[in-house]
Amino acid sequence: EKMKQSGMTRDAAEREYNDYLEQPPEYYAISQKERYYRKMGYKNSREGRIAEAEKEGRGDEVRAEIERVEKEGQFKAFGVLGLFVVVFLGLREVYLSDPENFITGIL
User: Fold this and answer.
1) Mind telling me which residue stretches traverse the membrane in this protein (predicted)?
2) Which residue range(s) make up the domain with 12?
3) 82-104 burial string, b = 16+ CB within 10 Å, else e?
4) Which tens digit of pLDDT belongs to each residue from 42-95?
């Protein structure tokens, strides 16, 4: 049915269905948006969303939302990275203080 609606070949439909099965739905939707905006001539989905919103007169609003989400993602990423560094340095200190008894019984 979808093949008829979108004019896809059988191979293209099978490829799209396999992509859907291999990726979680969220990532599949993101990749579909990326393809959609690239097909429309934009470099990426961010640029496409902003340009389409500007046509509707909501460009600044969408740009601010995208920037907010990106900053939030960066904050989370640096938080996780910082946590791993702290844990690594803590374990390193424990190991250096007594390497003979570090994690005994596991190995």
Assistant:
1) 73-91
2) 2-75
3) eeeeeeeeeeeeeeeeeeeeeee
4) 998 888 989 989 999 998 999 999 999 999 999 999 999 999 999 999 989 988
Q: Is residue 99 part of a domain?
A: no
Torsion of CA 30, 31, 37, 41, to 10 degrees: 150
Is residue 90 included in any domain, yes or no?
no
Query: Smallest Cα–Cα separation from 36: which of 46, 23, 21, 22?
Result: 46
pLDDT score for 9: 85
Structure tokens at 55: 């046509």
Q: Is residue 45 part of a domain?
A: yes
Q: Using N-to-C axis directions, what is the helix angle for 10-22 and 25-39, rounded to 10°?
A: 140
70, burial (CB in 10 Å: exposed 0-12, middle 13-18, buried 19+): exposed
pTM over 0.70: no
> Per the structure, how many domains does the chain have?
1
Q: Is residue 105 assigned to a domain? A: no
